[in-house]
Amino acid sequence: MKPFLRINPADNVIVALQPLSKGCEINVDGQQITLLTDVPAGHKCALKDIAEGENVIKYGFPIGHALHDIRQGSYLDHEDIKTNLAGTLDYSDIKPKGQKKPQLSDNQLTFQGYVRSDGQVGIRNEVWVIPTVGCVNGIIKLIVEKTKVELGGDSIEGIDGIFHFPHNYGCSQLGEDHENTKKVLRDMVHHPNAGAILVVGLGCENNQPRDFEAFCGNYDTNRVKFMVCQEVAGDEVAHGVALLKELVHKAQQDKRITVPASQLRVGLKCGGSDGFSGITANPLLGAFSDFLCEEQGGTTILTEVPEMFGAETILMERCESELLLQQTISLINNFKTYFLSHGESCGENPSPGNKAGGISTLEEKALGCTQKSGQSVVCGVLEYGERLKENGLNLLSAPGNDLVASTALAAAGCQLVLFTTGRGTPFGSFVPTLKVSTNSALYRNKPTWIDFNAGVLIEDKDMDETLDAFIQKILQVANGEYTQNEQAGIHEISIFKNGVTL
């Protein structure tokens, strides 16, 4: 392993790939530098004297400015650098490049998926119980538990599992919050990873079950059933169990068939990032995104809008059209306005874990984060709760919060979320959530959390070799191999909330 990396020739910092000791000498592009301090792995070291107020450059872009004079060979972190981010911008000088979509590869890959009646393809054949309101969370839990007992346990032939998805909303919400709840639940009703769905309402909630049913639009009435607890005479749990058993038997009739990889819709997410995220795991996701979108005709979605701040112009310049550029500008500025309306700065994003891992500012985090999108043209921009319309790379409005953003990706239509992390996390959304470690130590330490190790990219593997292995891993998951979160039985949702709770 190399001891350090200069990511871009314009950078005035390097990243330590392993702990570097005070007094050691390093040669950077012919320049001999003596380290004045210890530098932890994943953290930054100054290549030159950096004056107070001067920009610190990493990835070829400013990641903030120096808070004081920094000497060549010195370690610098979040206490030495301050963000340059402020409020909204007009981006009037940005022009979309209008790139054309590349031709598809002759080597078209396939996977074994479930083709639903509406033409969508799922990579799981699960049965879901979805509440219209949090008041029935306990009821849906009992329905699922008793159904499993009556059907002989967790392992049911032809079914990847029966799951319920509690949430706190559906009532006492106003305006956009209420609409967001309805949209995400509607999107779940239409998700192809579910072979059948039971929607359970109470009856008196704001999210009225009959109105919500109409809100869902056209759906497969053989695959989706609605139940209103206040309308059931007697034991609503027993009634729900009877409905759910019927739906299980229906879903058991579905079988995997061969479908092209162009049917894959994959979410791109990072969390618990560290100094290696923008060097290993996120570029790997970017390479996969380019492969899926450009060579296979598939679809990826990038979200976490607050973690685009400082790198958004890179995405804007890759928009396919002026319309998409304006939608991307709105995507960014609307989220900045949301921050400012709550009296919060647009630039105070890095978490304690990010800082401990080597990320000092939001710009640094964003420049690493956006690498998950690769180099492809931006073909679509989605509002929160909106479902996919365009193949190729899409941008989605959602916050950086891991579970909220991953839920939004799945709700948009992704069958799978790829999640890079340098710190580790056990969570899983309501679709398979494939964790990619940025470093090998995390992969070794948390084998029950991590599915794939991108840390090899700074050891003995090149990108092409690692990408090939990653593609095979993703196809295995699409074919039915469970991710670590699935093996642990972790399936969750979280819905974005902004306004008043009554």
3D structure, described in words:
It is built from 13 helices and 23 strands. With 502 residues, the chain is an alpha/beta fold. It folds into 3 domains: 4-82, Roll (Archaeosine Trna-guanine Transglycosylase, Chain: A, domain 4); 126-255, Ribose 5-phosphate Isomerase B, Chain: A, CATH 3.40.1400; 259-487. The strands form 6 sheets. It has a 7-stranded parallel sheet with strand order 19-20-18-17-21-22-23, sandwiched between helices. Helix 11 links the parallel strand 22 (433-437) and strand 23. The radius of gyration is 24 Å and the shape is globular.
SSE blueprint and pairings:
Layout: E1 4-5, E2 13-16, E3 25-28, E4 31-34, E5 44-46, E6 55-58, E7 61-66, E8 75-76, E9 81-82, E10 110-115, E11 121-122, E12 126-131, H1 137-150, E13 162-164, H2 175-189, E14 194-201, H3 209-215, E15 224-228, H4 236-251, E16 257-260, E17 265-270, H5 281-295, E18 299-302, H6 312-316, H7 322-341, H8 352-357, H9 362-369, E19 378-382, E20 392-396, H10 402-411, E21 416-421, E22 433-437, H11 440-445, E23 452-453, H12 463-478, H13 484-487
Parallel strand pairs: 12-13, 12-14, 14-15, 17-18, 17-21, 18-20, 19-20, 21-22, 22-23
Antiparallel strand pairs: 1-2, 2-5, 3-4, 5-8, 6-7, 7-9, 10-11, 10-16
Kindly list the characteristics that best describe this protein.
502 residues, Archaeosine Trna-guanine Transglycosylase, Chain: A, domain 4, Ribose 5-phosphate Isomerase B, Chain: A, 3 domains, four-stranded antiparallel sheet, 23 strands, 28% helix, globular
